[in-house]
Amino acid sequence: MFQNFAEVTQYCEKHEVRTVDLKFCDLWGRPHHLTIPVSQFTSEIMDQGIGFDGSSLGLKNVKAGDMIMVPDLSSGFIDPFWDVLTLSFICTALDANTHQPFKNDPRNLARKAERYLQETGIASSSKWGPEFEFYVFDDVFYENRNHTAGYYFESLESASSFQHSDQGTYIPLHSGYHACPPKDRFSNFRQEIADHLEIIGVPCQISSSRGRQFRADGDRNSFDGFNDRRGCGPPGEVRREDDRCPESKSSYFYAQTHISRSGQRHALSPTSVPG
After folding, report:
1. What is the pTM of this model?
2. CB-based contacts of 20: which residues, under 8 Å, 6+ apart?
């Protein structure tokens, strides 16, 4: 979105941005963030970064846990889930003492994998196509305590919930593939996710109810592994090589966080399908 810090400053002044949200991802694919007033987002951050405790995230030991994050200006986008206008960036984690990329930062690991691919002559480019599939539950509960373990989930689309719901319809077992409303209760929910992703530059090809009941296929796209700096998580299966996300976007990171936060807004529990 931005090529330099001057462009960020101009954009914030023109659009009256109030806060800046800085996101980064740990080795296990879990996103973290901190938020600062736009007045504190200065060019010094690009050189000095913003400190955080890596030991609290299991990235470093307690005695040498200092780390810093530096925003990737090209990853900037307006976050639609904040009440005040918020500009969001994905950050790269660095060692606080050396200012070198942290070896276990997922973005650094992706870069090293790409360099290895090129240096060994295996390939000149890498194509990946995440398929963001997720189950949507109205309620999810699990416990794991002494002498007790279990889980519970609820979906008003399912036959098991029909007797105590007021929906008047349900999806029979193994009959949810491309179901139509009113059986498909989440078409508007998926469209909201697709709209958010399109706005920030992640193209969505398909949104539909899939296969087994509760399953929703939120987005399919492909991107060039050398241009897209993934924020977190493993990439999915290959789809189309000619369909790419913009170079500045970390598609997987954006999709996963937007799916989860859209669910939170509607009191739903989207649960990603692994693999």
Report:
1. 0.74
2. 12, 35, 36, 37, 38, 40, 41, 86, 87, 88, 89
